[in-house]
Amino acid sequence: MVQRFDQKTGKFQQNYIVPVEENDEVSVMDLLEYIYQNLDDSLAFFHHAACRQAACGKCGMRINGKTGLSCKVKADCDEINLEPVNDKIVRDLVCH
Ligand code: FES
User: Fold this and answer.
1) N or C: which end of the chain has fewer CB within 10 A?
2) 73 lines ligand 1 (CB under 6 A)
3) Which InterPro entries match (predicted)?
């Protein structure tokens, strides 16, 4: 489940199904990129192609209720809830 927000619609929740092989080690950011490229290109999240190694700190979000970096946290459970890291939401998972 992804908590989404934009100025027109306000907050709403959206579910996506992402196929992951059992032994694949994928990050939460990998899931978000799959969604963006294959399911819904309106989903907004921070993406820093040159980082993706927990260096810039900008991909933070609430992942199953805990704050974490989406490029670092492994997607190792069947259901993942993603929320913006704070209340200063620009759109979807992107915050100031
Ligand atoms: S993309 Fe830089 S910390 Fe995640």
Assistant:
1) C
2) no
3) 2Fe-2S_ferredoxin-like_sf (IPR036010), Beta-grasp_dom_sf (IPR012675), SDH/FRD_Iron-Sulfur (IPR050573), Succ_DH/fum_Rdtase_N (IPR025192)
Number of domains comprising the chain = 1
| CATH number of 78's domain | 3.10.20.30
CA 65 / ligand 1 centre spacing (Å): 19
**Ligand 1 pocket residue status of 69, Cβ below 6 Å:** yes
Q: Give the tens place of pLDDT for each residue, 25-83.
A: 999 999 999 999 999 999 999 988 889 999 999 999 999 999 999 999 999 889 999 99
Q: Which domain holds residue 6?
A: 2-95
What residues are paired with 94 via a beta bridge? 91
Report the nearest-CA residue for atom 2 of ligand 1: 56
